[in-house]
Amino acid sequence: MTFKPSPHYARWLALAGFVLLIVGSKLWFIGGAGSDLPFNDQWDGESLRLLQPWLEGRLTAEDVFHPHNEHRIVTTKLYALGLFAANNSQWSVFVETTANALIHTLCALSLLLLARRWLRGGWLVTFGGLLVLLFTLPFSWENTLYGFQVQFYLLLLFSLGQIALTLRSDRFGWGWAGGLLCGLLAVITMASGFLASLAVLAVLGHRAVRERRLTAQQAVTAAVALASCVAGWLLKAEVPGHATLKAGGVGQFLVKLAEVLTWPTEVLPWALVLCVPALLFGFERLRRRTTTPDEAILLGLLVWVLLQFGAMAYSRGGGTVLTPRYFDLLSVNVALGFVFLARACAGRQRRLLGAAWLVAMTAGLLMESHKQWNDFVAPNIPRQWHQEANIRAYLLTHNPATVLNQPWDDIPYPDEHVLLDRLASPAIQAAMPAVVRRPVAVAAPDSTLPTEVPAGLSPPVNPLVLSTWRAPGGRYSWRSAVQPTSTLPVLRFRVAGDLGARGHPLHLVVKSAAGTVEVSPDFAPGEHWKIVTIFRPAGPWWIEAGDDDPAGWFAFTAPVELGRLSWLAQQLLKLHGVFLLTGLTLLAAAAALRRLAPDENIA
Known about the structure:
The protein contains 20 helices and nine strands. The protein is of the alpha+beta class. The strands form two sheets. Strands 1, 3, 6, 8 and 9 form a five-stranded antiparallel sheet that branches.
């Protein structure tokens, strides 16, 4: 039997490779440049107004709907609370940023699937490559590394969902209902969330005027969109201190609008390349009597982008509008610019203009990424280490000096006294992530356990429990006190010495009535600390350690607790290379199959 490859195989392989490539790249960046410690706005928006009230049994709807600056970030708070509860009530930025990476990848996949309505063949493949750049390069590093920035991803996802699902047909259905739900969720995601409803309303109004008809589904869609616009406007919060950030006049507004339109090139003539094909498309739609569903979706996205950019230019026109947190929204303009350019041109002219446009955009994206890395990301990595060390020291000693009078960038909040107030909550202390969390006190404070280690072994991050390097008689055994069943399910140890080496009768185990779990590294770490993570047995538990080898030794630190999602996030971050390699392999396989079974619709 002769194997005949189906073009559908290539399509699915390409989509899977596309997803894995973006996910792997984002996990690589998070693991290399991120921190598990909450930062800045999280201490207000999550700690004060969400997690602490939740843990103390006093969370109300007012806390959830309380504005954060101008925004009602209800979906962000509910999302953070859901991850927190699923993570055994442990607050972890890595859990948030890892989950955020999946949401942002879903946005990229949505744009690629939408583009199949407008592009074919090599143009669609090229568009996929452009999306990989837009969704993996670190120019928008804030949204990638700070868990609290997920509202930008949710805004994009809900806005795309509302525009695509409500405008794709004139019939009622589950997809249409999902689009309406996306619109309602966008309203309670950010202050500009209602702009997607306004874009839908504009497209429906245009179609009603030009086509001189309005179906029942369109009428209901318009009514819900109008209600969402009114709700979004009424929910908007005014921040008196932010009045100076707004554009001071029409001239300043237009200058800032030009800045966002020309990003990432920051060269004004390129605004024409980005905008002229889009304007030609819009002008053509306004003149024609009928609009297809595909054209309606594209027109809705164009209107939404222009409304978003206008809102940015006005609300931040008095300051800096080109900040990394906005770049993920500006990326949509770049993606749409490619679509409009491909639709506006034909033949050789199309290929030449497309190639020149791609070169200019790629150069701009690379330059922006290089700038953001050198100016912000790279210097921030050692700052995060200092922040973690200071907060870890405070939680271990409760000495205010570890937080007070520190350099401004050595603590994760701009006001040291406010940060101390946040950290004073016992509920928040018990919820802190493993990177700063107070270890489990498995040894009594007045115990006289041997702790001498070789001079070449660096001081451990957490308190040392036991070292058999200089144990009396070269042999030693020890058992800890019984620990409560309320301990989180995962324990992280740091071990050194000959533990894990063959032929050495050394053992370190965690026991309970339910069973025994061995704490053993893959190889003997020697005079280096190695992390070993285990799932502890259920019920009250204790640690047993033994050294029956006169020639061997080992040492271990007090274990730190992790929630299940914290453990999973750590594993995913370690597997970023596997995601990247698998993604590239699947894309290569899709390209090979495409040669055997060409199909112009394959992405």
